[in-house]
Design a protein that fits this description.
By secondary structure, this protein is an alpha/beta fold. It has 19 helices and 27 strands.
């Protein structure tokens, strides 16, 4: 969602703030702005659209000032306008905000009745107006912030500067992440460590309810009750280099191509390549053999990784597994067994609904394990154990390499569960681990066929509706393929279990509807092909994703086909994810949409 950067520096900070905000572009945004403290007071520059627009404005109208805050906004309250862009300034205070102030309406009514005049449509301005009123009443900045935070309801991260207080910044966190960076005679605030990595590797993460008072040389942190607390300082591993596209047109193309490498890195965490066995870096805080049930919860693409894992845990470890969307699970008050394990999956480790689901599971006495790509994230810090994916920074909003790394980590975990429960023999373990080890090479083979896949994608780009069909482990990939296509190309797409075709979706089939059929030559191949023939009989435009045996069976039927290397069915989700990603990517490129930052989407959804 929104990105926050704040600097108490030694030199003018506006340009550094913009560069730090570039490292937060992956979160998604529609406008941006910077404010600094100058001898004339609070000065701002704001622009709608990409950061290049803000940078151009600053080139024409530079900002001086060594204390500043910056923001990339993802609109929630009010349209995408320069007026609604952050930072918001009222009187002697300027504010940037990530999140949602849930009670902003009654607060706005109260302030309006008290004479405050609002100039924006945002919920954030309520915070600035409240602070300005407290300052007018004679409170010092620290006391004003304390009073205002007590009034706010919702999820928010805030950074605040005050006119004439060049050696003061106050930050607060209640939900969305916020990090403090420690420099030499400088202090920094950021939505994550990546933004601060060019300036410092010494990071302190605020916890929920914390607020911090920063000066150039120190930071004081208080908890939600106003008590002084100490939070540990860590040394961030975030790269100080701005991630670039290399020779690729888009970050997404680069990240698709990186998948063989990063899956290999993730496997290196959890398997012994020589022995072909799974291993765990740390001792498990629970015994798989004693578990009664697994509950997996996640959002979006990560939930489809969880759905694939359900098949693995139940088939390999004979362990009942439920998968739920976190935004529903957190409010369902589901009864959970005493001997249960909750697995939460999140690329960023900051997804608000997934974090709330984790906390609910902990309250219900569940063991907890997180699959995350950011080991310093809130979910990682609060979970009982972490299985880290090694995808590296994923900049494209639509997840690709993070998804396949999640699948890889979950597959290793399922093998471990089967081993510990005695449902998987040593020979079977070696076979499955061997299949995972081969997956990166097989993915590389698929990537070599990209030009052919792009040709098919251009045909799909003309459609208004597209269906994806899959069975078993490939049903989640049908869902993911449909999600990717609609995320990137804005084409309406739906994924279905192939066996459900006759229960309604077949009514959508005509000669204008492409149907992507995911059908490796496995135990369910015959049934999936039977469903495919039903589509063909009704004039549907079939694109068949299959292996050599499937290609041979259908070579004279006139279908468009994409070859996927033949592999153990266990790893088919990993392999078949690649061509559906490429189909979506190239369809979007042909149409001309913003592939890396699709409209209305954010990389890290840190509010409901």
């Amino acid at each position: 969602m929104c990105g926050i950067v704040g600097i108490l520096g030694k030199e003018p900070v506006a340009d550094n703030i913009v560069e730090a905000l570039r490292r937060l572009e992956y979160r998604g945004y529609d406008s941006a702005g910077v404010a600094t403290l100058t001898p004339r007071g609070i000065e701002r520059r704001r622009a709608v659209g990409k950061l290049k627009n803000l940078a151009s404005l600053l080139a024409r109208e530079p900002l001086e000032g060594a204390s500043g805050i910056g923001h990339t906004r993802w609109a929630t309250h009010g349209g995408v306008t320069e007026t609604n862009a952050h930072p918001h300034a009222v009187g002697d205070v300027v504010v940037v905000h990530n999140g949602i102030i849930e009670n902003f309406r009654p607060l706005k009514e109260e302030l309006t009745a008290d004479g405050s005049v609002f100039t924006t449509q945002t919920d954030t301005e309520v915070v600035a107006q409240l602070l300005a009123r407290e300052l007018k009443r004679g409170k010092a900045p620290r006391e004003a912030v304390r009073a205002v935070l007590a009034r706010l309801q919702g999820a928010f991260a805030l950074a605040m500067l005050f006119r004439g207080e060049n050696d003061l910044m106050i930050a607060a966190r209640n939900g969305p992440p916020l990090a403090i960076g420690h420099g030499e005679g400088e202090m920094f605030v950021g939505s994550d460590a990546i933004a601060l990595s060019p300036f410092t590797s010494r990071i302190t993460y605020l916890e929920d309810g914390d607020w911090a008072v920063l000066t150039h040389n120190a930071v004081e942190i208080c908890d939600a009750h106003g008590n002084a607390v100490k939070r540990p300082m860590s040394f961030s591993q975030a790269s100080a280099m701005l991630v670039d596209k290399g020779n690729h047109r888009h970050f997404m193309a680069k990240e698709i191509e990186e998948q063989p490498e990063v899956i290999g890195h993730t496997l290196a965490e959890y398997v012994d390549f020589a022995e072909r066995t799974v291993r765990v870096p740390d001792k498990l805080p629970f015994d798989f053999a004693a578990l009664d049930r697994i509950t997996i919860t996640a959002c979006g693409t990560a939930s489809y990784a969880g759905l694939a894992a359900k098949y693995w845990f139940e088939r390999i470890a004979r362990l009942p597994t439920e998968v739920d969307i976190a935004s529903e699970f957190r409010y369902r008050e589901a009864p959970l067994p005493r001997n249960g394990l909750a697995i939460v999956v999140s690329q960023s480790g900051e997804t608000a609904d997934t974090l709330a689901a984790l906390r609910y599971c902990q309250q219900q006495g569940q063991h907890t394990l997180a699959i995350v790509n950011v080991p310093e994230s809130t979910i990682a810090r609060e979970s009982g154990m972490v299985f880290r994916t090694c995808a590296g920074p994923e900049i494209g909003v639509a997840s690709t390499k993070a998804f396949t790394c999640q699948l890889t980590a979950l597959a290793c975990l399922a093998i471990l569960a089967g081993k510990m429960r005695g449902t998987l023999s040593p020979g079977q373990e070696k076979e499955l681990v061997g299949a995972l080890i081969m997956a990166p090479r097989q993915m590389t083979e698929i990537l070599k066929d990209e030009r052919h896949i792009a040709d098919i994608a251009r045909e799909i780009a003309h459609a208004r509706d597209v269906l994806f069909l899959g069975r078993g482990l490939n049903y989640p990939i049908a869902l993911e393929g449909a999600l990717k296509l609609k995320e990137l190309s804005y084409i309406h797409a739906e994924g279905y279990a192939a066996g459900e075709l006759k229960h309604g979706p077949i009514a959508l089939i005509d000669e204008n509807v492409p149907v992507i059929v995911i059908a490796p030559h496995d135990g369910l191949y015959g049934k999936t092909v039977s469903n495919m023939e039903e589509v063909a009989a009704r004039g549907g435009k079939i694109v068949l994703l299959t292996d050599d045996r499937g290609m041979k069976d259908n070579e004279h039927k006139g279908f468009r086909t994409i070859r996927v290397p033949r592999a153990n069915p266990f790893v088919s989700p990993l392999l078949y994810a690649v061509p559906v990603q490429l189909l979506a990517y190239h369809a979007a490129v042909f149409i001309g949409t913003d592939v890396d930052q699709p409209r209305n989407l954010a990389k890290s959804v840190t509010v409901e």
